[in-house]
Specification:
By secondary structure, this protein is mostly helical. The chain is built from six helices and four strands; from the N terminus they run E-H-H-E-H-H-H-E-E-H.
Length: 205
């Protein structure tokens, strides 16, 4: 497999006035513009009008470059192959994420669920409840963990131990196993993959 995905096409944008206002007022609201503010605003609009011509001629006609080559062995264990791509992407998404979607209460532990009273109170103001972002972080963590386990060649080995035995099958003898732990591990992985499918369209920054 070989994947090469270029960045999204850029456009020429003039931010002389915008950057000036952000630096001067540090993101706070402002009402009375100074003469300097107005001059920079006019300059920005004039420069941007020129930029827009070049954007129309060149930049707006460009598309993101995507090249994907799939080798026949990539689908022998496709779930394992894709895990090596999905896992690092999820890790980066969590590190750079700036928002969070609504998460169903049934998908997270009870301690992360909002009460009806909280939902009603914050719903009136349009704000999110205090656990809103924690719920999404938990969902991402479960996805990341599930794909991390899938990347491992033999996670099942954590739940049994063999010793050398010349008389045993294949020269080995099972001396310890934890079927309950193995089942719980698999169920958590399966749930992580379900969450990945359910919230797939929310995987953006």
């Amino acid at each position: 497999m070989k994947i090469k995905i270029g960045s999204y096409p850029n456009r020429l944008i003039c931010n002389i006035h915008t950057n000036h206002m952000n630096k001067k007022y540090e993101g706070l609201s402002y009402e009375n513009h100074t003469h300097e503010d107005h001059v920079l605003e006019v300059i920005e609009e004039a420069v941007q009008s020129v930029y827009n011509v070049f954007n129309w001629i060149w930049f707006d006609r460009r598309t993101q470059k995507v090249k994907v080559r799939i080798d026949r062995w990539d689908t022998w264990s496709m779930d394992h192959t894709l895990a090596h791509v999905i896992h690092p992407m999820l890790v980066q998404l969590k590190a750079t994420n700036h928002g969070a979607p609504n998460v169903d209460a049934d998908d997270v532990p009870k301690e992360l669920r909002a009460t009806k009273k909280q939902l009603a109170a914050y719903g009136k103001t349009g704000d999110v409840d205090p656990k809103h972002f924690e719920r999404w972080d938990w969902i991402l963590d479960e996805m990341i963990w599930a794909f991390e386990q899938k990347c491992r060649d033999n996670w099942e080995g954590d739940f049994y131990t063999y010793e050398d035995d010349s008389e045993g099958m294949f020269g080995l003898k099972l001396v310890w196993e934890d079927r309950v732990g193995q089942k719980a591990h698999q169920e958590r992985m399966t749930n992580g993959f379900k969450l990945f499918g359910k919230y797939y369209e929310n995987l953006w920054d």
